[in-house]
């Protein structure tokens, strides 16, 4: 970054008050060596002094002791006038001189660990005690007064501070950027506090939904474009890891559509406890399968619809083996995402220049989903196969012979895999693999036709069928029975269930009701 020497402001006096003392000693030493006078609070001053660096305690400056267990330390006009004086104004400079207050050129503050304290399961009183008051006041004051003061809120910036001090100070552009970072820091902090009050400590009702929805995201990177080339787009992260912060081990930059498909792929693959591979295009599975290992699961998933799998996004719920990598390297694939890669697997995948290889640990974990709508947002608890009806032990046999354990496992796989398909969804499965998927149709009959057509006569016969929602009429089901499916699982609950059950019985097909629906839009 080029420095504008006209606006560079030398740093002669610094106020340092930090909870996280990482890098503090080196910072203090560096500032002192550059001739900067240091003023500091309680244990920060203690650590600086212990490092052999001269430091003035805030209480010497204010003439008032730190009190109330640290609740009042820096909340004093001698501190805040020193931070807030606009040194461009003669009147402010004169008032400081009259009051005997010396200005600060640099403020270094980081805040009490409120979020971490809540996450540790601390008592409400302990959490409240970790709401920093004096720190944000100083940070906001210094950020507001960036024409005169530089504000630093992260130890990661200490290197920049020392470089700036040695070269004469920060210029206005740098001080503005630091002020922006500082306001983001306090804004995120306040959102965390307000959310804790709204979610937990002082929830307005027992609906389970907070009265206030606050979220803070940092821009991670600007993407080439959005869903289409005429739409600008960028990726933001919330600091919880997941796909948004996945490590890219190889390949071209991720696109907007790569992210949405990879998200859908991980959602699908992690629904299964067994080694699973999901191949996704336009957020729908063109193949999903479980296997003894991930290579077998991939072969089965790919066989579902090899034509559509071209240019797909693959999610794996186990480490990628070299065997799987060899298979994937043979097929044009946009993205592969997995929790880990065995030695040599990335090298095999990297033979293809364009495939994006991502490592994202753990299953998708967002407990709630927020969907923007015009003028607002919808929030819902994330669907994670958590309903009673997702366990075959709770299914009701609506008609036909009860399935054996092995057959029930097949039907259960179809039920889980069907959840990954956009509604209206019908999925046919055999041997732990999808063989025909009917997705995104505006009536269930067409979804059934699509699933049967994609499976082909041979694969449809004897397959296990799942429907994400009930059959409103027998017609959709009849497409499946005519194709010779062995069993069907569906939520049930239609006013015409009786007719649907009758049609299944007539065809000699076993049908289970789950009592649970899995719309996915
Ligand atoms: N109350 C105050 O006047 C006050 N002034 C600064 N602090 C915080 O005290 C911490 C540093 O304290 P110490 O130097 O004692 O470790 C910093 O995180 C700072 O944000 C304060 N603490 C909380 O509000």
């Amino acid at each position: 970054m080029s420095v504008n020497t006209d606006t560079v402001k030398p740093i002669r006096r610094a106020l340092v008050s930090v909870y996280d003392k990482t890098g503090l000693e080196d910072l203090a030493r560096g500032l002192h060596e550059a001739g900067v006078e240091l003023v500091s609070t309680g244990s920060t001053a203690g650590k600086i002094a212990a490092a052999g660096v001269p430091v003035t305690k805030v209480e010497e400056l204010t003439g008032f002791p730190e009190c109330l267990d640290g609740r009042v330390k820096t909340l004093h006009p001698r501190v805040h006038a020193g931070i807030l004086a606009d040194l461009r104004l003669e009147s402010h400079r004169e008032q400081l001189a009259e009051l005997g207050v010396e200005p600060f050129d640099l403020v270094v503050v980081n805040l009490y660990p409120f979020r971490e304290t809540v996450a540790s399961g601390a008592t409400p009183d302990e959490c409240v005690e970790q709401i920093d008051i004096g720190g944000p006041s100083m940070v906001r004051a210094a950020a507001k007064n960036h024409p005169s003061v530089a504000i630093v809120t992260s130890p990661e910036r200490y290197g920049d501070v020392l470089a700036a001090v040695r070269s004469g100070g920060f210029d206005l552009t740098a001080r503005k950027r630091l002020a922006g970072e500082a306001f983001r820091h306090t804004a995120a902090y306040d959102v965390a506090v307000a959310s804790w009050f709204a979610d937990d400590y002082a929830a307005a009702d027992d609906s389970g939904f907070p009265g206030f929805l606050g979220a803070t995201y940092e821009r991670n990177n600007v993407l080439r474009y959005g869903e289409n080339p005429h739409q600008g787009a960028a990726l933001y992260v919330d600091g919880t890891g997941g796909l948004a912060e996945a490590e890219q081990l190889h390949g071209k930059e991720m696109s907007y559509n790569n992210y949405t498909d990879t998200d859908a792929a991980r959602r699908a693959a992690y629904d299964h406890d067994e080694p699973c591979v999901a191949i996704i295009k336009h957020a729908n599975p063109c193949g999903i399968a479980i296997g003894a290992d991930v290579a077998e699961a991939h072969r089965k998933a790919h066989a579902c619809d090899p034509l559509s799998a071209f240019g797909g996004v693959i999610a794996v719920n186990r480490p990628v083996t070299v065997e799987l990598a060899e298979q994937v390297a043979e097929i044009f694939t946009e993205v592969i995402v997995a929790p880990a890669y065995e030695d040599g697997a990335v090298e095999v995948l990297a033979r293809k220049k364009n495939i994006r290889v991502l490592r994202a640990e753990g299953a998708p974990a967002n407990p709630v989903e927020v969907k923007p709508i015009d003028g607002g947002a919808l929030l819902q608890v994330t669907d994670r196969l958590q309903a009673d009806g997702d366990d075959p032990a709770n299914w009701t046999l609506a008609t036909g012979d009860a399935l054996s354990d092995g057959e029930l496992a097949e039907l259960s796989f179809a039920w889980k895999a069907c959840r990954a398909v956009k509604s209206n969804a019908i999925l046919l499965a055999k041997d732990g693999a999808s063989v025909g998927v009917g997705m995104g149709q505006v009536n269930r009959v067409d979804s059934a036709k699509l699933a049967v057509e994609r499976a082909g006569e041979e694969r449809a016969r004897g397959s296990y069928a799942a429907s994400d929602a009930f059959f409103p009429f027998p017609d959709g089901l009849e497409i499946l029975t005519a194709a010779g499916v062995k069993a069907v699982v569906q939520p049930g609950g239609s006013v015409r269930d009786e007719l649907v059950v009758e049609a299944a019985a007539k065809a000699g097909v076993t049908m289970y009701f789950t009592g649970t629906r899995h719309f996915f839009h």
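The CA atoms of residues 343 and 369 lie 35 Å apart. The chain has 19 helices and 21 strands.
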